[in-house]
Amino acid sequence: xxxxxxxxxxxxxxxxxxxxILAAVVLLFTGRLFQLxxxxxxxxxxxxxxxxxxxxxxxxxxxxxxxxxxxxxxxxEGSHSLYVTPNTFDWKSKQLIAKVVGIDTAEITRLIxxxxxxxxxxxxxxxxxxxxxxxxxxxxxxxxxxxxxxxxSKRFYNHAVRASHILGYVKEIDQDELDQxxxxxxxxxxxxxxxxxxxxxxxxxxxxxxxxxxxxRGQRIEQFNDGKSDQPPxxxxxxxxxxxxxxQAYAEYLMKANNYTGxxxxxxxxxGEILAMVSAPDYDLNVFNGVxxxxxxxxxxxxxxxxxxxxxxxxxYPPGSTWKPLMVIAGLEEGLIRPTSTISxxxxxxxxxxxxxxxxxxxxxNARRAIQASCNVFxxxxxxxxxxxxxxxxxxxxYFGRRLGVDVPEGxxxxxxxxxxxxxxxxxxxxxxxxxxxxxxxxxxxLNPLQLTAYCAAIANNGVWIKPHFLSKAKIKKLGKVQYxxxxxxxxxxxxxxxxxxxxxxxxxxNLPGGTARHVRLPDINVAGKTGTAQNPHGTDHSWFISxxxxxxxxxxxxxLVENRGFGxxxxxxxxKKLINFYLNRVATDGFVPFKERExxxxxxxxxxxxxxxx
Length: 615
What we know:
Number of strands: 23
Number of helices: 20
Strand content: 15-25%
Structural class: alpha+beta
Largest sheet: 7 strands, mixed
Helix content: 25-40%
Distance between the termini: 101 Å
Number of domains: 3
CATH class of the largest domain: Alpha Beta
Radius of gyration: 35 Å
Oligomer: single chain
CATH architecture of the largest domain: 3-Layer(aba) Sandwich
């Protein structure tokens, strides 16, 4: 009996020990599960997500650009891109991708290495993929581990107007640009020239991010967290320019039809808005849109006429007789001549032991008549009276010799000063005739067409100089607001009586017998202008014409430069006549088809502020 009782007690003891051990094990596992799921759950969940979630960059849509009449001149259209995530990329599929897209496998490796920020961030290795290749990539996509096929955008241009030197182009960012901004990563696109460059931060927008669940091959299978973790992009601002795209297109057409090299710039005098800016020859922006073939780029870059160079803002030339109205203003303001002052022009002026020729024997001329007939002798003598300091002072007043700060890239110009000549030749060792030459816009004076247009616009605007600009207003899409461009202006303080003498002289150039541009008079529009023929040491003279119209209430000021063609009245002035007539009357000649007669143009948009804000 004792043995039976002992055995029963022993069994109970073992069972209790087992239950305690079991309870301890269960408690241990429960505690561990609580630690893993509750205490450290978020940490492990993030680690798990990091292996199954991919962060994709969503590129914003770059802002569109409109002209003053609502025509779209550049916007964005669909484009295809291939992304690779380095840490999940199936290198075995590299050969198949290379075969589909038509590049070498080594090039794929190079592109991945070039654009890789870190192993987990997708990098774009191919952009602007054509539709045929895109279809093939989609067909074999299941074989490409660690890749993404994305629909993005590229620039679309209104084919009726080129405006290549205004708009500029967008290309892949380079290392120097990467070093200057933390916003970009290798492979991003950035404005390289023109409006695209100057307003890059307005146009580019802000990137967004999308989180997607991926399979063990790194390929997207579904949206993560129903998109709640995504950050949508903010598309770029739309820009509204003062540009008249139709006037721009007509100017481009005329320059090309006449096989002219040179520039045309037109400004609205009362606002400073640039209505047109043509540099001829120009180039097709589509060559730089998307993938650019080397041979296509070289054809443009190596062309002897340098189409990449914007002659309107980077070309420098002596202005010739277009400078003479400024000389009259300076002479009157400095008290060197009076409105009634006259000189005698026998056809030449002897100075420094040599004759300085005129265009003819003009007899007795005052300031107004000197502008009308472009009498060199009048301005030779006036320049000698004026001296270099007053000359430089009044040239500076009209912003010559410096960059204007216009909203496209521009180069420097030269307005000679006393210091300039002292540095060049030595103090008191200047060549004889320096001032004589400067008086008629020759010699070391070197300006660009944009500066001459702004100067002409200031004369038309009764002595108020307004900084030329393209941007009129911008639409901030996220806020639905329109932001206006602030105009920068300066009253040059010119005596209205003196200014009127210059304005009447320029009126006489076109409208009275004896004027150097009498042949470009318009029957229903009073045009004021000044011809210029600038000596060119490298060949035939350059042809200039500055003008504004209507004379009574100016709406357009213009400068036309035709390189190496001779007299300003023969080549530049007739071009200006056609463009002014077109802008004010919408009458085109020479076979140009106005926009209203074309069916292949983008639809115009309503430019009222309320409509813009809602778009």
